[in-house]
Fold this protein.
Amino acid sequence: MDFEALREFMVQTQLIPRGIHDKRVLDAMLKVPRHLFVDEPMQFKAYDDMALSIDENQTISQPYMVAIMTELLELKGNEKVLEIGTGSGYQAAILAELAKEVFSVERIASLAGRAEERLYAIGYKNIHIKVDDGTLGWPEESPFDRIIITAGAPKIPDPLTGQLSENGILLAPVGDRSSQQLMKMIKIKGTITEEFHTLCVFVPLIGKHGWKTGE
Ligand code: SAH
């Protein structure tokens, strides 16, 4: 299959018409081989307009959702970014194209291991993954210029707000278990402002400051 042509088609039909305009984001979506982040039998679907299953009942988000979240992070290239919910590692790869350093936390060890293998094989050197409850953040590496949660949260975990830099942006799907709204939090002079964006559906954020179980 001509995956490069599929990526171009994805950008032209799913991202640009829906308003994604940051050239750096569009270039990253054109570059990162999304098909390498799903199992081989699913590769032909990797550039379709939908979320796909990965292992352990988790999902890799729809391309548009990855693009809009990335655009809302306003990355310029020098940022230290924290991602909660490594999953397949695809969003981490997109972030690594656009920021300086990416730290990603995944609670399921097998997913973290596979993501690490893939990212290493593709050649990323600026992504660091650890297995832990990401609702606690990554205190040793904080503060972060950007924080992105890629699982649905009942509220923003307090430790994450605390680990956000001055002028930092935190993005998360916040809501109930079945649907959420993308929330963008900006910290300026210690004051937090919140903006609400598109509705979305993510698998639950499970942890001390998230949902208590996966059910
Ligand atoms: N960003 C991923 C998709 C994430 S799916 C990608 O690009 O493929 C959501 C992920 O969040 C799942 O892998 C799930 O196991 C993980 N997750 C849920 N709760 C978590 C927590 N408290 N800490 C870290 N990861 C968590």
In short: The first strand starts at residue 52 and ends at 53.
